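Hello everyone,

My group is preparing for a crystallization screen and wants a predicted model to guide construct design. The compound we'll soak is flavin mononucleotide. Before spending weeks at the bench, it would help to have a computed complex in hand. I've included the protein sequence and the ligand's SMILES below. Output in structure-token form would be ideal because that's what our pipeline reads.
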Amino acid sequence: MDLPTLLTDRRMTRSFTGDPVDLDALARSCALALRAPTAGNCGGVRMTIVGSESIADYVERATDAEWRAASRRVAGLARAGALVVVTSRPADYAARYAEPDKAASGLADPTAWPVPYWHGDAGMATMALLLLVQDAGLGTALWGNFRHDARVLEWLGAPEESLFATVFVGHPDRLDPPSSSLRRAVPAPAERVRRRGA
Ligand SMILES: Cc1cc2nc3c(=O)[nH]c(=O)nc-3n(C[C@H](O)[C@H](O)[C@H](O)COP(=O)(O)O)c2cc1C
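Reply:
Good plan to model first. Here are the tokens for the complex, ready for your pipeline.
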């Protein structure tokens, strides 16, 4: 599929069939996605693939029992074929910007960054992954990091990393309950493009 079509067609898939996903192919997509730009060539983003047998374990750590009991979506999401947990390593960015060619930036201290670009790097690689997975005929759902990140990172064995998001990957069953976010009236993409002096 061409890139404009992929971008136009991409939508969150929040319910899956339970059919398996080729984890080797997914690993290749992750490696390709990690060719995304990275500040100072830090390469500080990691993608951890979680197989279907461990998805329930992940969901238990990332959510609360009350949320799971009330959720309309948890069963459909749990039928994903795999997850990709996207994390970044802020310390790698601080170390890189302490190197001689970057030291003048004053960014050896992570709290000095006007924009914490380890999150930007993670976002760019994540978007690339969403498109690559869609191009392979599968669907994706992105879960942001809104709670329990320490618990998830501990479970991943990477407590020093920063949890960016989790991508559910699988075969869409097209039974997604509609997202309330989609009822919001947001300006159309073309209306969000500005021009100055052109
Ligand atoms: C940073 C970020 C966090 C998100 N977190 C969640 C989430 O936790 N759960 C969820 O169902 N969707 C989540 N989404 C998906 C958005 O709700 C979705 O992208 C938006 O409603 C537009 O729908 P579309 O992607 O299908 O076009 C997240 C998206 C982003 C970019």
